[in-house]
Amino acid sequence: MKQFNKIVSDELFEWMRNIRRTIHRRPELGYEEKETAGLISNTLKELGIRHKTGIARTGIVGELMTDKNAPTIAVRADMDALPITEETGLPFSSEAPGIMHACGHDGHVAIALGAATILKENPPEGNVVFIFQPAEENEGGAKPMIEQGALDGVDMIFGGHIETHYNSGTLGIKTGLHTAYTDGFEITITGKGGHAAKPHEAVDAVVIASQLVMNLQTIISREIDPFHPAVITVGHLNAGTAHNVIAEKAVLKGTIRTTDEAVRKQVVGKVKKMASSFSVLHNAVIHVELKPGYPPVINEKRAVEFAWDVAEKLLGGENTIAIPFPTLGGEDFAYYLQKIPGCFVRFGAARKGLENAPSHSPRFDFDEEVLRLGAAYMSELARYAISRIRKK
Ligand code: NI
Q1: Which of 156, 214, 318, 378 has the largest count of CB atoms under 10 Å?
Q2: Fold exhibited by the domain 3-178+296-390
């Protein structure tokens, strides 16, 4: 018997599913989550949970305070969607052209509201703060949320992500380093345009860009200690206007993923060095612009212990997965963990026997049973963390 079925009634599950589907239909991009925030605010009002709106533009912080002197735990959900055209064919598909909840943040909101309902009905012996933040996908909404006081008085924070790489009914926990540094870059190559038949009169930005794309990969394969995972991906390359014109300009956009500060500096330094060498080699002007991304999520030891204890109790040891390796994905939950201890987990949501498209795919969907698991887990985890911190 799965314990979490006892904590979340069928009625509460259907209520959460309805919230998830409502938000799914009306996805909003980062810092534009007005309707979503409105729905959250109304729901918290109905639940009788005091909350502040308009934090970091569209963010919300709800407070369930029982005892000023008791520990305070934060439960965090992100609210934003992605600029993707949905292809799931679901009856509650996106009604916003070109925008889709393809990362499960609709589910994260439903889980946090479900946990809030459970904790309101049966309050813990301490305080719980519910953080609904904007813009996880692009600009790192966690940062202004913290700057505007979301973590004030909070002792420990927990969050989770719906994950179709793990089966529904399981939960993944990574000790220590969990996600990567995610630094963006934009390289602009300016050569000299000319006639396609007269290369000697021009500096071909397409050829330089092509060489650069290939050579950037040798930074990873030939320069970095293979025991330190690192990735360079050029995801965007734009150059030229016509088949018979040598392109004057080429623009490359990409991302650098690393898990170690020294390796991060090394890769960034090599990218710059390679660009400046290429500019000398080819008589071009090459400009590198770096866009620092999120720091890594580093789960704190004691918070991991709490997360693990509750997962084993609710789901059983066989459904509690010790994630063996970090992911080179990014997650702005990292900013909270730079301030206070906490743990970020993965809620398994793959449906057996189905395709289970990954997140950020236009066909992404998940097993909605994860809402039941997520709400039961986050509420129990908050309760448990409060009791354990009290005993300290
Ligand atoms: Ni996400």
Answers
A1: 378
A2: Aminopeptidase (3.40.630)
